[in-house]
């Protein structure tokens, strides 16, 4: 556990490991020979920029490869294997679990130049290389009357490869499902540099790869399912004087039969942080804000469904405002997507959680977490995809003035609230290194052993993204 | 972003830099907004990557020389500032960093001479005008010249007009409704004197008297953004002395880059005795479209005559207007207020055209790629006219649009208004 606590504070340039600096490694030289200088980064100034994701700084890699084809990935993996160093895959590094931040110096393979994308409208499929930007899939599909629904908040930045590695979600996922639900087939390169093409048939190896954070193989390409977008969408914002009331409204609306396409929540601190950024006139004094979309083929049904939600909100003590235009709705959703990074306005660093709890437990869970925050010396804020019980409590802190061990303890307490109410640790961000410690609380020893057996079967040398997801063998909860 | 930047030894500019690094949560939302990331696809040439590099250099973990190529490629367009939810003042960071690092740079004599020449010629309209007209004669030889000389020649318009110095005072026509000071700018006096002439006519027409205070000079942005901080400070102080903000309703600029530069004065003088003066000055600075847009919103802008035929105007957002000053709606509203004008939105409109002050002289290859991309995007809307609010964008876009074989006129927003007032649009 101590290494993980340390990981929270390893983003200082002054404390870089000695192996990070100085002369280019033999690995970099070999890769440059094999792939040419354009695809290999070996200078310190270059490698330093491939050691972080959107939550954590890790170890500076020995070399970085920017492959342009699956063949380049194979070459890079074989060279790293020959050199005996670990391999970490990376997309846009907008992840929030530390998944792309290396735990030890090795090879980083950054997929941002593998951006080939083909739309097959007749099959309602997209063929996307790992580096394709998430939103680019929908942008390319829309002229054919199709969209790709998974919409993580970072979808302008994030890549399909990264989304697959973390099984990313997003507001649309409440009704439409997460990244993994849209995968028909995958190509990946294994730990020995062999290329494979897998579908969803037994064994569903594609399913195993999805969400495995590059610990079992490196996904190079995916066949994604596309759907026609709903012709009608309506948006509503409700605000509440107390966080629990907001959660009660959500449970009541869904119990009444509403199936919104998006159902999102942010607390007062979050609302104020995004309002500072966008100046939309959001209710700064509300303790909780709920954003809701309903969509469908029939406008009357869409509006009826929105009315069900509005009624539930008002009964729970909320104030309801409907978006008058599509542009107003779009602005509200932009606000929601900006919440997580906007929290940087409050404190320079954060510990981000991704718990999922049963919907019936939501009012208790948000209240208990609020109380934990109030009793702690830290700023604790909450937002998330409340429709499917997926919450992102964030502890905001300044490591220069505040105790990072206490941050970690509070994060642990929050995770335990979720587990006590029958929840899980991660809904969409992945476990990465940030929540790896808590796995022993969430998964029983026999299951952990089974997970380790899977890991060893696919990555016998333990070279793929070490130090992620699975706690070291023998560590007890 | 957690950092150990030694603020106490870096002074006021250190505070500016550390504050920006603090605010970054390295979320990566800036990546798709960045022109160099769009072209190069690597983290070092993204805003997030550059923030990390500057942090490392300031902390002493990375030699300046190693980081320099990536930092030099930054256009300073500030598209990342618009995209940043956590409010990182990236423009302030890169400007302060360049000011801090430039004295430590070891540049080749040729590079030094080129930079010195740019910073000498650019702020001196008379010298610029002579140089531009000399350039006209050499322009046909451009293909045979080395790239460093070719890039400025490529940007020269087909003909360089004679200088038309503006009168120090332009009275209001009709009832006087306001009084503003005007910064006449540098390059545009030599290359596009009609920008200023049109500005004065439109203001006067709206009952605004215009003073061009004596003693004003270059805004200092070019010097500041290339790290020549001492040079910039001289220009900043000269302008603070020339413009007394109490005498005017507003201090106007019609060049987005200059206006953004004027608004930066408080940051430049952060922690120094003139900071309060700079704040009072900057509080009055407005772009011409921001000021006229205010009149329009208040219902006091004189209506123009209609365009002689339906006109499709592609409006180009200058980075230093849209991103640096947040002025987007006003120029569009002003154009739409002309009967017969339709405003077209340019695809990838937030992406810089590659002009970026002296960028097309210092990084000609990337600037050319961005210029060509911008021209393609603009021409995809099949406009009758192209409007922008910045001299740098104007020359860059004109040059690339012509290279792609299109003859659509490229004009300043205020020139289009001026024509409409005169019934000549």
Automatic annotation (TrEMBL), chain A:
Domain FAD-binding PCMH-type, residue spans: 57-229
Keyword Transmembrane among UniProt keywords: no
Gene Ontology MF terms: FAD binding; oxidoreductase activity
Extent of Low complexity compositional bias: 12-22
Keywords: FAD, Flavoprotein, Oxidoreductase
Keyword Flavoprotein: yes
Biased composition range(s): Polar residues: 1-11
Chain segments annotated as coiled-coil in the UniProt record: none
Stretch list, region Disordered: 1-22
Cofactor list: FAD
UniProt cross-references to InterPro entries, sorted A to Z: FAD-bd_oxidored_4_C, FAD-bd_PCMH, FAD-bd_PCMH-like_sf, FAD-bd_PCMH_sub1, FAD-bd_PCMH_sub2, FAD-linked_Oxase-like_C, FAD-linked_OxidoTrans_Type4, Oxid_FAD_bind_N
Protein family per UniProt: Belongs to the FAD-binding oxidoreductase/transferase type 4 family.
Protein name (database record): 2-hydroxy-acid oxidase
Organism of origin: Deinococcus indicus
Lineage: Bacteria, Thermotogati, Deinococcota, Deinococci, Deinococcales
Automatic annotation (TrEMBL), chain B:
Documented EC number(s): 1.1.99.14
Keywords, ordered alphabetically: 4Fe-4S, Electron transport, Iron, Iron-sulfur, Metal-binding, Repeat, Transport
Cofactor note: Binds 2 [4Fe-4S] clusters.
Catalytic activity: glycolate + A = glyoxylate + AH2; (R)-lactate + A = pyruvate + AH2
Keyword 4Fe-4S: yes
Pfam families (UniProt xref): CCG, Fer4_8
Known cofactor(s): [4Fe-4S] cluster
MF GO annotations: 4 iron, 4 sulfur cluster binding; glycolate dehydrogenase activity; metal ion binding
Record domain 4Fe-4S ferredoxin-type: where: 14-44, 61-94
SUPFAM superfamilies given in the database record: 4Fe-4S ferredoxins
Enzyme class, spelled out: oxidoreductase
Protein task: Component of a complex that catalyzes the oxidation of glycolate to glyoxylate.
Full protein name: Glycolate oxidase iron-sulfur subunit
